[in-house]
Specification:
Helix content: over 70%
CATH superfamily of one domain: Leucine-rich Repeat Variant
CATH class of one domain: Mainly Alpha
Number of helices: 20
Radius of gyration: 24 Å
CATH topology of one domain: Leucine-rich Repeat Variant
CATH architecture of one domain: Alpha Horseshoe
Distance between the termini: 53 Å
Strand order of the largest sheet: 1-2
Structural class: mainly alpha
Shape: globular
Length: about 325
Amino acid sequence: MAKRLSLDDKLAAVRLLRDRDPSPELTAELKTAIDDRPNLIVAAAAAIAGDQGLLELAPALASALDRFLVDPLKTDKLCRAKLAVIQALDKLEHGAPDVFLKAARHVQLEPVWGGSEDTAAPLRAAALLALARIDVDGLLTILVDALVDPQKDVRIAAAQALGYHGSESAGLILRLKARLGDREPEVFSECLSGLLACAPKENFPLLSGYLDVDDTPVREAAILALGRSRLPDAFAVLSAFWNRQPPAALRETVLLAMVMLRLPAATEFLVELVATGPEAASLAALSALKFHSHDSRLRQRIAEVIQQRNTPTLRARFEKDFHNP
């Protein structure tokens, strides 16, 4: 009688399938894994199915979600399989909303020391983004409810989904949420980014105004939203804010936002700051520019600036952050 494979052996065998080229045999083996009981096996197979673009496995993936919604505390702790299934179906651009609606509503309270914890927040977040892709009927109602979800990840996903929707109604929901605020700066920042995605001209003054409030987390959120926007007007606002000598707590955030803009003018601003700014500001600008360290031409230009300036601390930082990839 053949020895029964352990869970670790089965998991290792499924992971080896990632290196295989698409074929009917691969599809059949992945379907067998997706139909299996252990959630880790299903999660591994689902990830491969999504990455390989195996559309024919969508029905098996949807069935797997239904299985793991039954007695989920026993069958799928931490929602590992359910999350992998939803992510795979989204990669496959699965168009049937029912599976995503089920996931978007799922709450899974698992016992932890002193109480319980909802482990389904990443699942709900992934499902919301999939529903935004489909633009399902009633989407805005779903996203309004998600904006008040107790879990930060879900509120962030709701704000992102509203930004993807891009309609006037979505923008108004985000504007109201921004006005009301959120206890988590990341949520607030995503709301601001969504506003710029929906209607940049109308919402830019609101966003810029947050740079002047007496609330450091709110200002940071607005700065990062401006950086994510990649709008030329955002560079003008950020550079003017820098020239007003912002508080020390905000300086690195401003320079990071400059890098996020990915605009030639912003890169030029940072290089000039390395060349001529006070040492602390030059070091901060150099640290921000490391996100462009893969750009050989820019790296060479910065090297020339560092050589001309001949400051030991700048040279050491450059050697640390800009070594050849």
